[in-house]
Amino acid sequence: MLNRTPVAVRALARAALAARPVGLDGTDTEAPLLRHHGHSYLVPVELFQDFAALLTDPRRPGGPYRALSVGGRRWFGYRSTHYDTPALRTFHDHAQERAPRFGIRERLYEDSGKRQLELKVRCADGGTVKHRTLLGEGDHPLDDTRRAFVTGLLRGTYGIGAPRELAARVVTEYRRATFVADGQRLTCDAGLVVRDAGQGRAVRADGGSVLVETKAGAPGRPTDADRLLARFGVAPVAFGKYCGGLAALRPELAAGPWEDAVRTLFPGAVPPREGDSVSR
Fold this sequence. Notes:
Layout: H1 7-18, E1 21-22, H2 24-30, E2 35-44, H3 45-55, E3 66-68, E4 76-84, H4 89-95, E5 102-109, E6 114-122, E7 128-135, H5 144-158, E8 167-181, E9 184-196, E10 202-204, E11 209-216, H6 224-231, H7 241-249, H8 259-265
Parallel strand pairs: 1-3
Antiparallel strand pairs: 2-7, 2-11, 3-8, 4-5, 4-8, 5-6, 6-7, 8-9, 9-10, 9-11
């Protein structure tokens, strides 16, 4: 997927290999979290290594975070295709924090070939619920069966149907390691590449940061990872791979809650704001 291995991907691999392993069944049992609350962070590589070492330390009170391991692998390639309307309804609903908000994507687990369609909906309490259905070989993610799946869930959740003119807008590719402990899940992504599904243009994230997402079942309770990142002076950011990636591809869309994160993760993709210093 990548011609060169970014520093952040190497840091991800080292952290996952240093942790105790846990299988997929154990991960889903300990922290399934199809409904979750959490935060996103852009963690500099030099901080990420210390952060991960503390969480996976066998001496950690309550036990260490363990790394998901499947078939001996500890980090995995993900490819997601994000769908939206011609007017980018999903993007603009998130930009303006309108309700209801949802996202539709096809996810490919590159190492296994497994595909699934996912619908993510935002709850009134700020949490996220993920619904998913497997895709077989040759299944189109927006055929009548999958459209009925999406429509049924949106009607049951919000009383609305699925948008009619959905098409692939953005494809994201990245490497992920997953850590679990205490009913909490931590996903760590690096090597993010974002492609325009229609035009083929691509942008590559800066390799000096790891995108960390904390996930827990209860709202309002920071996880150990949240507290540790606060001690390191790392604050949460507003960033989603679809909205942030599309903003990096199309600078005219950058103004939004994710603007600062996009400038950090994709330096040079978005022109400086008026009054910003261009020197470093």
